[in-house]
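Hi R.,

Here are the chain sequences for the assembly we discussed:
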Amino acid sequence: MKRVKASRSPRVSKRARTRARLTEAALRLMAESGINGTSVSEIAAEAELANGTFYLYFRDKSEIVAAVCQAVTLAMHNEMNSVRLSLEDGAARVAFGTQQFIAIAAAEPKWGRLLMWAFSEYAAIKEDVTRYMRMDVALGVEQGRFTEPVDEFVIDTLLAILRAGISSRLDGAGAGVGARAAEYHLRILGMSAAEAHRVRVATNKLAERRNG
Amino acid sequence: MKRVKASRSPRVSKRARTRARLTEAALRLMAESGINGTSVSEIAAEAELANGTFYLYFRDKSEIVAAVCQAVTLAMHNEMNSVRLSLEDGAARVAFGTQQFIAIAAAEPKWGRLLMWAFSEYAAIKEDVTRYMRMDVALGVEQGRFTEPVDEFVIDTLLAILRAGISSRLDGAGAGVGARAAEYHLRILGMSAAEAHRVRVATNKLAERRNG
Amino acid sequence: MKRVKASRSPRVSKRARTRARLTEAALRLMAESGINGTSVSEIAAEAELANGTFYLYFRDKSEIVAAVCQAVTLAMHNEMNSVRLSLEDGAARVAFGTQQFIAIAAAEPKWGRLLMWAFSEYAAIKEDVTRYMRMDVALGVEQGRFTEPVDEFVIDTLLAILRAGISSRLDGAGAGVGARAAEYHLRILGMSAAEAHRVRVATNKLAERRNG
Amino acid sequence: MKRVKASRSPRVSKRARTRARLTEAALRLMAESGINGTSVSEIAAEAELANGTFYLYFRDKSEIVAAVCQAVTLAMHNEMNSVRLSLEDGAARVAFGTQQFIAIAAAEPKWGRLLMWAFSEYAAIKEDVTRYMRMDVALGVEQGRFTEPVDEFVIDTLLAILRAGISSRLDGAGAGVGARAAEYHLRILGMSAAEAHRVRVATNKLAERRNG
DNA sequence: TATGAATGAGGGTTCATTCAT
DNA sequence: AATGAATGAACCCTCATTCAT
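And here is the predicted structure of the full complex:
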């Protein structure tokens, strides 16, 4: 099981460790039961801390929600960054990022499920998730790979598709869904279905080589 | 002794009027604060009724949620049906339906906002909303207008885009968003951006003629 | 199924018939779910009457409880009176009455169950049930059949045993329980176990003859 | 960090004290108004605590009911155990136990009244109360003191008599009722009235000697 | 006589948050 | 830094009873 914040190394202060325990506890519970479905007391209990201790680390419940969501998206970005940033083609980056993001959410369902809840119950998640997406799309636009003028609504659409992909996979759909979401992203950005398919397949091969 | 038509306002029974008052109150409040964010007492108060009266009309809170959501989607479908069903081309129907659905949600923001909340907090809404969508897509597929194989994930994707469109408009985006969402739908279903654009524009002209 | 108040004969006014419908409905429901577990609205619904109609026949809920309990105990007394009153020996009457009361409660479980609830939730039932008991015991005392001085506590004890007997039978115990309760009654009143047994057996034979 | 013994009143933890306050409040109120007739809010108020505090100590209302009933029956058993267990004759034990149980219920009317309600509204009380009774009866049977075959119905009958005895005393009857209930128990178990009387009187003398 | 809509107090329960220790 | 007891408002829901028609 991956930890959002690992390392009990002496480097990390006790305060930070306790905070991490709370964050991890919250992640476990919120992935299971949703954000509104998880109470502060439950989080404290899961972290083996007293009720009131929670408030020494977070001003209120919303603050830990933000922390958990940031931690998760950060971890997911980190997982995909090394390969993703090595791709020079913006279209390839978009394709890879989408696929990978969904794959990670499926491989680490706690993260995926938390995201799903967060999309519903914590609006600010949008910023965290779209950060990488905006960069890749902007790169592709700059490179003339996309014909669609890029604005907020395009990003919203891409995000909506990403979300649908994660949801599908968590409900049991196969990995193909990730590939399709990637192609849909490219189509939204103006590529034809055929072109999008070609890019996505090529990206996969490239990514495998970099990964292996 | 039941009276068939004896009340001062013979059109609607008192029971029906009170029920409507509750449903409308619920719609107003839920559009504003969400489904979970609206309490039964608030609904009763907004309808100027006593707390317990609510339960003479709905078995529990979930029942009024269902009632409100169905009422809204039904109303929206009715608003768009006459023109939509007159279109013979499946692609045109998809384009028109999407655009129109978003337009209605924007014109009647209570409805739109309720839908947004329902997407998050009332899973069953999906069935109500996708009903027309499935029909139009199926028609287009039958007519060979779409190349994308249609399965649950495609529908989920279309729904996600629809949702993004409504959300954008409620946040102040202009009517162009509806048109774009329509084109995105067609792109997802396999059409190129250019083709999608052509179909959508043609559909709009046709629809205007039918409407006026 | 026996009716507490039968006869829809023209003799009986409509008012009385409606009242009876409410009483019977209440009996059915209260036997099933207890007195506190049965709401006024449920009673009205079961009687196919409107909610408010109830209050045209009973001042409040407690009044129908009393009515139902009286009706049931009256019916039970009537069922056993013809044979019981023909017995001249007070001890025989006690034995027969006890046995018969339990037998009736078992044969008409609605009645039995109502009584069990009433014992718990409607103190006044005691008067209704002990009426016959007091008479029979007094007769036996007068005849010198019982040595135990009779006071309220003896009656309470006999009632408690009767109740235990009904409860047992409703829980599935066989008819033997009624016979034993009868003997226990006689023992409480001062007879030895052997004597009590003899009287009870003789009474049974006698009663059968009168019955057949 | 848990402190083993640091509070100003080291004897009992604050938690235990608050729990006791709730239990005692519940006992007071339930003795007065019955179990169903006592609300959680009333208990909290009587204990001078906030409504929600109750749920830090009991999962739900049923839990405090069980706790109160167990506490009462346990206390009553403890009060009578030292003498009762010193009696070697099963019949004496039954006689003493019954008398004593009723005497305690009368001396501590809160306990008695709670029991009366519990008999009606909390079925599980039967097990708690009959525990000692079953042991004593079994002992007497083993010793050949009782001729009545012992089964569930006999126990139910004994319990019913015990209950009648407590009820009588709470309604103002004198201590004689306890003695009579004891004799009735023996009669039910097969002893003649005279024998039962003898045993009971002898037991009383013995018990007084042990007590004094 | 009958209806049935309406009331509103009260029930059990949850939970984010505070605070004395 | 940590505890955990305590708070109290809010939530959903039930029901005996009233009243205009």
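Residues 14-15, 18, 49-53, 56 of chain C lie near DNA strand E (CB under 10 Å from a C1'). Residues 65-210 of chain C form a domain with the Tetracycline Repressor; domain 2 fold (CATH 1.10.357.10).

Let me know if anything looks off.

Best,
T.
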